[in-house]
Amino acid sequence: MRIDEREIGTASAPYVIAEMSGNHNGSLDRALAIVEKVAEAGAHALKLQTYRADTITIDADTEAFRISGGHGLWGGRRLHDLYEEAHTPWEWHEPIFDRARSLGLTAFSSPFDPSAVAFLEGLGVPAYKIASSEIVDLPLIRLAAATGKPLIISTGMATAGEIEAAVTAARGAGCADLVLLGCTAAYPAPIEDCDLRALPLLAEMFGVPVGYSDHTPGLGAAVAAVALGACVIEKHVTLDREPGVDSAFSLDPGELAALVTETGRAWRALGRARIGPRPTETEGLRFRRSLYVVADVRAGEPVSAGNVRSIRPAGGLAPDDFGRVEGRTFRRDAVKGTPLTWDLL
């Protein structure tokens, strides 16, 4: 599949998506600065989240509308308050997208309700991302799929049946280009809960390219995901470690640059399934061990450990042949440094 003419799949280097989320901390200037740093880091896409507090929840204060008290980042907070703080104002989308495009970044978003899809269509986004929590919102998936744009669907928290329903809904509504992202929808996510070995299974079960939406600290999970077939990597990005709703599990610009570099290296390192010497190993083959004459000898002298040894370079008989030649006599004189060959014996 392609997004903005860039091929996405295992034949290409990983497509790195920088998720801004709420890391703008309520400042458009900060949001635009993040865009510039994302471009400098070499990421391929910038992603926003398109919702208003009132389109994603309601202003209520019962227990159902509060984050559990034990949550490490947002414990006890009301959903409406959290989303009001974290949302990206809709009037910011166009200047953010314009800045991203001017810097060579693809810009798109995660819609959270039908009004967001309509709004983003008006901005001409080239793709849609469905967040993990919205994988059960099949009408939203069908609406995004009906645009004909590529869909990227995160699978955090989802059962195999829920993923199947989402894929069926997307396909049924006309989605031809679909990527599923493995994801652990915890913020931050414990590294032990990544279960990256599920990525090949996800690809096999649903016949689509897979990627990884990573909420763990650091780069290790994302790099490992590439080794298991991930062709898309999504990571939250912040400008700096200034406190914000998502900063605790976000990369700073330097870390994002390292992510782009290291996932690219991991992809290149995969190569192809082959066993045997590579062209770059040609010189090394010259310096394998072999049997050499290590002291000047005269014709008729027997081969011994004193005058023949396994040394570098190659060129002589195999080291394992010593037992076959020990005690045999030299046919002719040989100087130190002569490779031992059968015609000498």
From TrEMBL:
<dbReference type="Pfam" id="PF08666">
    <property type="entry name" value="SAF"/>
</dbReference>
<dbReference type="Pfam" id="PF03102">
    <property type="entry name" value="NeuB"/>
</dbReference>
<protein>
    <submittedName>
        <fullName>Pseudaminic acid synthase</fullName>
    </submittedName>
</protein>
<dbReference type="InterPro" id="IPR051690">
    <property type="entry name" value="PseI-like"/>
</dbReference>
<dbReference type="InterPro" id="IPR013132">
    <property type="entry name" value="PseI/NeuA/B-like_N"/>
</dbReference>
<dbReference type="InterPro" id="IPR057736">
    <property type="entry name" value="SAF_PseI/NeuA/NeuB"/>
</dbReference>
<dbReference type="InterPro" id="IPR013785">
    <property type="entry name" value="Aldolase_TIM"/>
</dbReference>
<dbReference type="InterPro" id="IPR036732">
    <property type="entry name" value="AFP_Neu5c_C_sf"/>
</dbReference>
<feature type="domain" description="AFP-like">
    <location>
        <begin position="290"/>
        <end position="345"/>
    </location>
</feature>
<dbReference type="InterPro" id="IPR020030">
    <property type="entry name" value="Pseudaminic_synth_PseI"/>
</dbReference>
<dbReference type="InterPro" id="IPR013974">
    <property type="entry name" value="SAF"/>
</dbReference>
<dbReference type="InterPro" id="IPR006190">
    <property type="entry name" value="SAF_AFP_Neu5Ac"/>
</dbReference>
